[in-house]
């Protein structure tokens, strides 16, 4: 295959040589990225499930808990699909799951990224409105309006991530390796470049720059306008939000940088080796964000810590009670058997 043959491909993978097996093509960077994906799955599933359980079923519904609940749901849906991508990387970027799961897996990843950053943006706006515009907040900051906005956010994230359902495709390349890649369905190189540029810049604008600018403005105005700054900075919720926002941008910034670099690879073949290692690593770092939020809640939120301790204590008490009850029943049965045994013996002796 020539360079032109790969113009329609994404650089999410490292194509093996014809005499290599898929497994032997994994580089050190790919092994590191594989560990990122595994950590995100192992910590993200139980962590986000706990957050969903507490905020969705144990705590009273409020505007703040609804925002964080939706954030946890976005992360939870995503990490459930991670075993597919872990298998993909472990098999040397061979996709055995078919075209529709290829499309769905990529769509869920983008849905998670956009939904997460949109919810973080509205959490920042909500915090600003509540403290700086209390009258407006009292009138419009309601659970009902939060649910409506949450639905709009999910639909917006689905629309922006929707092109993955159309462009993602599978193809069998060297040595019968099936890849999951961006297939722009055209043979016009200029149109391929234009499509690729539009997708990357839309993701950058809506999934990174706009949210970043919005959050910076919101928190800057909060610091300037809130007179009693000690009230603001001493709030556990404030530091929880700050930590979640910083974690998101630290995790996803490398991904967007390499996405921009990927655009230059259409004109510079020397960038291919960099992208083959850089994109899986930056993607893995982005995936780690899905398991960080529950950890941040536990480390920062005293309410969350207390709830976890209470729940664990209740579970342990229940388990000990059942064990104790089981032991008592066993003793009663043993005692009952011993009580009846002599009677039975005497009867047979007679």
UniProtKB/TrEMBL annotation:
Keywords: Cell membrane, Disulfide bond, G-protein coupled receptor, Glycoprotein, Membrane, Receptor, Transducer, Transmembrane, Transmembrane helix. The keyword Glycoprotein applies. It is found in: Cell membrane. One of its GO terms (biological process) is phospholipase C-activating G protein-coupled receptor signaling pathway. The chain crosses the membrane at residues 34-54, 66-86, 106-125, 146-167, 198-224, 236-258, 278-300. Signal peptide: none annotated. InterPro entries: CML2, Formyl_rcpt-rel, GPCR_Rhodpsn, GPCR_Rhodpsn_7TM. Its main location: membrane. GO terms for cellular component: nucleoplasm; plasma membrane. It is a multi-pass membrane protein. Residues 47-297 form the G-protein coupled receptors family 1 profile domain. This is Chemerin-like receptor 2. The gene is CMKLR2.
